[in-house]
């Protein structure tokens, strides 16, 4: 449903990137991912496939959860992008600006979309259709 492997789920849970509810059943344990957890997982998987390394993807997820926490629950909110910041020598999360994105691309700099509303819609669609 999210594009994640079981190993990714386990690793991200161990690193507390995405923390599901874990319930003891007496004969083992059950792991439950909320809707917002599923969006977080799908976002991480998407960013990794876009070429971000684990640390940058994790940092981006953390920033998004701080800046737009409702976006993970409703899919409603602004669009963002990751842009290169020469001063910090790292990717920076900023609100989407088409002109700036085009200018940075023209200068050969990376521009990575961070559109959780699109990722949210995909997860929601899969939940409604029962794909998984």
Secondary-structure map:
Blueprint: H1 6-14, E1 21-24, E2 29-32, H2 35-49, H3 54-67, H4 71-74, E3 80-85, E4 90-95, H5 98-106, E5 111-114, H6 116-129
Antiparallel strand pairs: 1-2, 3-4, 3-5
Helix pairs in contact: 2-3, 2-6
InterPro entries: DNA-bd_dom_put_sf, MerR-type_HTH_dom
Domain HTH merR-type: 1-63
Protein name: MerR family transcriptional regulator
Can you give a write-up of this model?
InterPro entries: DNA-bd_dom_put_sf, MerR-type_HTH_dom. It comes from Anabaena azotica FACHB-119. Pfam families: MerR_1. With 132 residues, the protein is of the alpha+beta class. The model has no long low-confidence stretch (mean pLDDT 85). The chain is globular, with a radius of gyration of 16 Å. The chain has 6 helices and 5 strands. The protein has a single domain, classed as Orthogonal Bundle (Multidrug-efflux Transporter Regulator, Chain: A, Domain 2). The strands form 2 sheets. It has a 3-stranded antiparallel beta sheet with strand order 4-3-5. It has a two-stranded antiparallel ribbon with strand order 1-2.
């Amino acid at each position: 449903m999210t594009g994640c492997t079981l190993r990714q789920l386990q690793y991200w849970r161990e690193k507390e990137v995405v923390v599901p509810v874990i319930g003891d059943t007496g004969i083992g344990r059950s792991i439950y991912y909320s809707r917002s957890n599923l969006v977080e997982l799908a976002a991480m998987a998407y960013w990794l496939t876009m070429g971000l390394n684990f640390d940058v993807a994790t940092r981006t997820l953390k920033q998004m959860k701080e800046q737009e926490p409702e976006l993970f629950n409703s899919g409603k909110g602004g669009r963002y992008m990751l842009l290169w910041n020469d001063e910090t020598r790292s990717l920076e999360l900023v609100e989407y600006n088409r002109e700036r994105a085009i200018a940075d691309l023209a200068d050969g700099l990376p521009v990575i979309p961070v559109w959780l509303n699109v990722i949210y819609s995909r997860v929601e669609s899969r939940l409604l259709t029962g794909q998984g």
